Amino acid sequence: MADLVYPPVIGAARTLFKALDLRFDIAGTEHVPRRGGAVLVSNHIGYLDFVFAGLAARPSKRLTRFMAKESVFRGRLSGPLMRAMKHIPVDRAQGEGAFRQALAALRSGELVGVFPEATISESFTLRTFKTGAARLAQQARVPLVPVALWGTQRLWTKGRRRDLGRRHFPVTIRVGRPLQADPDEPADRVSERLRERVQELLEAAQRAYPGRPRDASDTWWIPAHLGGTAPAPAPGPPAG
């Protein structure tokens, strides 16, 4: 079935980004396979991360079907759009259905996007990765493509008001080489290897990031270990 809604939504997003005068630095997009199933795995620091992570696949002319919490699909505007773009609703209390839907999408050659931290990291550091992305890749026998986002938290994140003014915010995106998920390797070990790779990409994105605090009060978006005032990392949930 043709994607009638997804491309116009991407076009609208690009128009918005241009209006906001966002400055993008994207590298590594050649690592996204041009065909066949793959799991696109990203860190999660802002509410718009699915839009920015999806940009990593556009040079390969791919559309990403993101796994997102079920409540987003109940919104009057967001619900019809999410369903039309064939994203995958996740009921955190009963995730088996979403897992099966994502697995079927991968086996049919789709690109599935996953945020394995399962929630926004308010410290802007990596939380523990759940093993769902690794298990999907193992069962579908497809690669994992690691992605790191930086700067997206400045636009809209948990506990902060949206800032969609023309502030020339930089957004840095790094895409790494695909990781193969051996079906015989424990899923938690695959997930840990994946997390290490996303961490490397995140550090590279942070080093390359040109943005600086506007003043002494504008350090909330910088992690404490980098000299900012973001909250300390929360204890990570058990992997799974």
What would you note in describing this structure?
- The chain has 240 residues and is α/β, with parallel strands linked by helices.
- The protein is 30% helix and 15% strand.
- It contains six helices and seven strands, in the order αββαβαβαβαββα.
- It has helices at residues 6-20, 49-55, 78-84, 96-107, 132-140, 187-208, and strands at 23-27, 38-42, 64-69, 88-90, 111-114, 144-150, 170-175.
- Helix 4 (96-107) crosses helix 5 and helix 5 (132-140) packs across helix 6 (187-208).
- The model has no long low-confidence stretch (mean pLDDT 94).
Elements, N to C (H/E): HEEHEHEHEHEEH
Mean pLDDT: 94
The stretches of 5 or more residues where confidence is low (pLDDT under 50) are: none
Number of strands: 7
Q: Give me the number of helical elements.
A: 6
Q: Quaternary status of these chains?
A: single chain
Global geometry: globular
Q: Write out the strand line-up for the largest beta sheet, numbering strands in chain order.
A: 1-7-6-2-5-3-4
Rg, nearest Å: 17 Å
What portion of residues belong to β-strands?
A: 15-25%
The helix fraction, in percent, is: 25-40%
Main pleated-sheet profile: 7 strands, mixed
Helix-strand category: alpha/beta
N- to C-terminal distance: 33 Å
Describe this structure in a few short sentences.
By secondary structure, the protein is of the alpha/beta class.
Features:
alpha/beta; 30% helix; 15% strand
